[in-house]
Amino acid sequence: AWDAALNFEDTEVIVFACGGRYDRERALFYKGVLEKAVAKGIVVLTSTSNSNGVDSQNEVELPCSLANGLPGVLCVAATVTTEPMVLAADASKLASFGVPATDVVYPTRKYDGNHWVYRKNWGSSAAAAAAAGIVVLIKSFKNFRPQEIERILLNSTKGRVRTKAGDEMSYGVLRPDAAINQAIAEASWARVN
Predict the structure, then answer these.
(1) Rounded Cα distance, 98 and 128, in Å
(2) pLDDT at res. 189
(3) Entry's Gene3D superfamilies (predicted)?
């Protein structure tokens, strides 16, 4: 799947909304494909674990645990929709930022004869998908490099996300309006110069 995504000429964003256990061999594989993606100008969004197993193997799932060391790769944590500063799952220390994603409605592949069936779910996969939508919108203003997208998104976070127990993380929750406004300003400035 990585090869296919990397070989399409018009791939601009990859959402890898799943994770797995950390081991050296897998870490080297992910590091290689993530670096290749960013070198091709592709922004990569990964997701955290949906586990509450704090300080466990869930904290270092791949590829999320590599995101902070690879510019242009971001790891997204789900926060509670009604309380956006609170994590939906506590094993999210290595995320880049949080996105509300506990009341997500999505289409299924089922059709009941009259309409498509929708389901409700929650989690970091939905948060990563929502963040990808913001990235695509940002890229519609200007073909920003992955590192520029990362800077715009990280500069557009608010506060500090915390666990349900109150432990504060080192990142905030993404403010899509701020990210879009910053991208528009930078794209406009680039056209003037």
Answers:
(1) 9
(2) 83
(3) Peptidase S8/S53 domain
